[in-house]
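Q: Hi! New to this. If I give you a protein sequence and the SMILES for fe (ii) ion, can you show me the bound structure?
A: Yes, paste them in.
Q: Okay, here:
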Amino acid sequence: MYYKLGKIPPKRHIQFRKKDGSLYYEELFGNEGFSSDSSLIYHIHPPTQVSEVKGFKDVAPKAAVNENITSRKIKANKLPSGSSYNEGKVPLLFNNDLTIGVSNPQSSLRDIYYKNASFDELIFVHKGNGLLKTFLGNIDFCDGDYLIIPRGIIYQIEFESKKNKILYIESNSPISFPKRYLSKRGQFLEGAPLSERDIKLPEGLNSNDEKGRFKLHINKNHKIHEVIYASHPFDVVGWDGYCYPFAVSIHNFEPITGKIHQPPPVHQIFEGNNFVVCSFCPRLFDYHPKSIPAPYNHSNIDSDEVLYYVEGDFMSRDSIECGDITLHPSGIPHGPHPGTVEKSIGESKTDELAVMVDPFNPLKITQDALSVEDENYFKSWLT
Ligand SMILES: [Fe+2]
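A: Thanks. Here is the predicted structure of the protein with fe (ii) ion bound:
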């Protein structure tokens, strides 16, 4: 969607002056060079003023398992809490297209500004509420929100809640809604499970006219560089365009149901290069008189499958807690646990809430994931 916030000149790339007669500083902010979505941003100070470049910290995920064909259950609730969202990130699964991890922040660091220069971020707020502050405006968030932050956005996350649970994805490619949901002009089609009214856009610019020392942590290729800016990173007076952060709640996803079991693509909410993200939401079950609500066994030979369990009783799984993550790798079919097919027959609805990520290239597994793994999970289909 085209969007504008604050004050902008009537035409791009022309003089736009402050009250004192000096110029605002225009910045073209986009991805994929000059060949994709962009926004035009107007700063009080030049966005180029760096006064110090400090060292960097390597946060690249390291593979403990490179080649995996084992179904796994990761008890992510057992992982420690972090001081803030960014400092508490624990990467669990990754490949060249994306990294999937969790963060359980207990507070916010208000004197550091963050920029992910290499990866678009999807932040799924399992538990927590607060304010995503960005240089393009603020977005209130709460339990169930997906926050999408394109690479390059300078941001801070301020939690109001003390105990927070986050599932995150860092993507090498832009994260967008599936193209099949959109018209030629980019409007959600009538059959899509979302509409424009479900999208939360940035509001209330932070136009700080301030010089000084402002600490940025910039993630470039999984290295966190510390850089000091000489003017406030949130100094934008206006912007317009198509490249900006936004949020959408999983609770606003409108499940598509049918007479018989519907396949996973009906649950899709986002896509990136070589992966999709799906939302499994409370819904009525199939209405054929002999329908089986539980899914059939399936051989996802072209993708690994990652499920993050949010709320409710997941009807096709046994012994799952909220916050658990399962990985069902390509190469082995997976399906309902023993007993769950019969149990599902006759049920009229489910209250399950889960996020699924299907990467099309195999995932590697970190030591942190292995440290909280249920090692017997892969045998849990044995009868
Ligand atoms: Fe599946």
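A: Residues 298, 300, 305, 334 surround fe (ii) ion (CB under 6 Å). Let me know if you'd like me to explain how to read the tokens.
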